[in-house]
Amino acid sequence: MNTLFDKIWDKHVVQIVEDGPTQLYIDRLYCHEVTTPQAFDGMRERGIKPLRPQQIVCMPDHNTPTHDQDKPIEDPVSKKQVDTLAANAAEFGLTHYGMLDKRNGIIHVVGPERGLSLPGMTIVCGDSHTSTHGAMGAVAFGIGTSEVEMVMASQCILQQKPKSMRISVEGKLAKGVTAKDVALYIMSKMSTSGATGYFVEYAGSVVRDLSMEGRLTLCNLSIEMGARGGFVAPDEKTFEYIKGREHAPKGAEWDKAVEYWKTLRSGDDAVFDREIVYKAEDITPMVTYGTNPGMGMGIESSIPALASVPESGQASFLRSLNYMSFAPGEQLLGKKVDYVFCGSCTNGRIEDFRAFASIAAGRKKAPGVVCWLVPGSWMVKEQIESEGLDKILEEAGFEIRQPGCSACLAMNDDKIPAGKLSVSTSNRNFEGRQGPGARTVLASPLTAAAAAVTGVVTDPRTLM
Amino acid sequence: MKQKFNIIKSTCVPLPLENVDTDQIIPARFLKATTRDEKFFGDNLFCDWRYNADGTPNQNFVLNDPTYSGCILVAGKNFGNGSSREHAAWAIAGYGFRVVISSFFADIHRNNELNNFVLPVTVSEDFLAELFASIKANPATEVEVNVPAQTVTNLATGRSEHFDLNGYKKYCLMNGLDDIDFLLESKSKIEAWEKANA
């Protein structure tokens, strides 16, 4: 009752279907190349056009190579999918930021940085990490391809209203602890299903203190505990971030917008279906040891013993450790690392590369480690260059690649080979996620950088 | 694709693992398809568990075990978590499953199944544990899913449970209708909302 989620959701209700779902109006639909071709086909089969084409923005990101983007994509299947999106956008009259367009990048990085995702909006995309846009103070969630078609056709979606949860993190984060660590910590407590059925509002002093980049990272990972989405109420920091961006309101429109955005907060009397409070002092740099993002621990901790896992979950737990070639009770510190990946919609923003560079500065990439640094967008890449981070990283033996989803899910050429261990700043450590047989340890950009310069899993605080 | 539901009676394929994510149901490399070819996705359902690296069937995986068959998949808690890829639902439908029984489904995947006329049936932990035991003891164990009555019955033990399904979706499933048919008819309501919120 009277939560910010209620305010935004209720404002967008077109109708509540009798003994059924809610028909919710959607302000913004993002389309990438992977989850939309069949939706466009469906539109053609039905002989219909998008109801509000101006509210739909398309860009390829999953298949894009992270080098030589000026040349044709080598993999013919990837090329076809990217070309199909461009053709569909042209046919249906939709905005499209193609691969070499300077506005291109990972859709969840581009939306906020172009001012396309704004407070109070409802935002959807055929991608579970759409929750990222919640950092702008929006209700944003991932949907399936049939639902993409629904939104194209009607600018609406049919959904059951989720329950509401507030997760507050109070206190002050210690040195070396980032938004990613907060998210991995929350997931380790909540498990991958602990927030299923809920929409999460992140609050508390730690969340207020996070930069917009940090909030985007935190909201991005909401889906990994099963939540439909997660968001942070907009504040001065949000307005400051948005002001002047390409699609942000301008002039008198800006003043009017900010006036409205300032009302977007949960009431003091708000009642949540569930409230959880975590303490900043309990959070250290985090790593995952298993094959789902909820299997995380403090970097100095040891993998749990089998006996501590509930019986119904023991088969999955053992299967997971077997895949990772880890044993119960083991520490990850000191394990040899083959690959390091810094990027993705989770940690592919300027702040993440500043963090990585802060560890790399004056050090050298460890021999034998393959490291992929992939900015989330061309805008991030330009920022890296304008701040001179590229020089620092090059001196340390690192190379900045071109933007895209890259090794997060290995739909392009950036695949971790079978059996190799990768410390990755991305969002999922599922079996085969970064390539068949690849073993993934999820961590923050600081921890990834510490692994990259030492060649083993290393506590970044020892290098700060 | 669009199918009408009434009463389904079938043997089951058991997958007693928890947290089966959609990357396992259909790995990302199969997401490059630009068509909704159910056979293609069905053939690659659980690909990395179902086939060895050399492409031969993994005889230890349940889909390759002739002991088990049927149009009902029975899976452990938190089925379909992770990526929103609807390709996972296409793969399940393409393989020939019409019902998935679990004690817990991830939200997006649950919707994706429903939008592809695969019925996710949520049962209690006890019901699920008993069903896994029944199937293990006798692979010929049948389950009856009665959509009009919203009941699921383990015919080996006679245990029956009610499952949730809202009236709107039940009507759609029993009549083979999808949400877009419904939304396209609501245009005047959409325009009224836009006018009120301009």
Number of strands of chain B: 7
Strand order of the largest sheet of chain A: 5-4-3-6-7
Helical residue percent of chain B? 25-40%
Structural domain count of chain B: 1
Radius of gyration of chain A: 21 Å
CATH topology of the largest domain in chain A: Aconitase, domain 3
Structural class of chain A: alpha/beta
Mean pLDDT of chain A: 97
Task: Summarize the largest interface: chains and residue counts.
Answer: A-B, 71 and 56 residues
Structural class of chain B: alpha/beta
CATH class of the largest domain in chain A: Alpha Beta
* Strand tally of chain A: 18
Beta-sheet strand percentage of chain A? 15-25%
What would the CATH topology of chain B be? Aconitase, domain 4
| Silhouette of chain A | globular
Summarize the structure in short.
Chain A is α/β, with parallel strands linked by helices and 464 residues long.
Structure description:
- By secondary structure, chain A is an alpha/beta fold.
- Chain A folds into two domains: 4-261, 2-Layer Sandwich (Aconitase, domain 3), CATH 3.30.499; 286-459, Aconitase, domain 3.
- Helices cover 31% and strands 16% of the residues of chain A.
- Chain A is built from 15 helices and 18 strands.
- Chain A has a five-stranded parallel beta sheet. A four-stranded parallel beta sheet of chain A has the order 11-10-9-12.
- Chain A is globular and about 55 Å long.
- The termini of chain A are far apart.
- The mean pLDDT of chain A is 97.
- By secondary structure, chain B is an alpha/beta fold.
- Chain B has one domain (7-196): Aconitase, domain 4 (Alpha-Beta Barrel).
- Chain B is built from nine helices and seven strands, in the order βαααβαβαβαβββααα.
- Chain B has a seven-stranded mixed beta sheet with strand order 4-3-2-1-5-6-7.
- In chain B, a hairpin with a 4-residue loop joins strand 5 (142-146) and strand 6.
- The longest helix of chain B is centred in the middle third of the chain and has 13 residues, at 125-137.
- Chain B is globular and about 60 Å long.
- Chains A and B meet through helix 2, helix 3, helix 5, strand 8 and helix 11 of A and helix 5, helix 7, helix 8 and helix 9 of B.
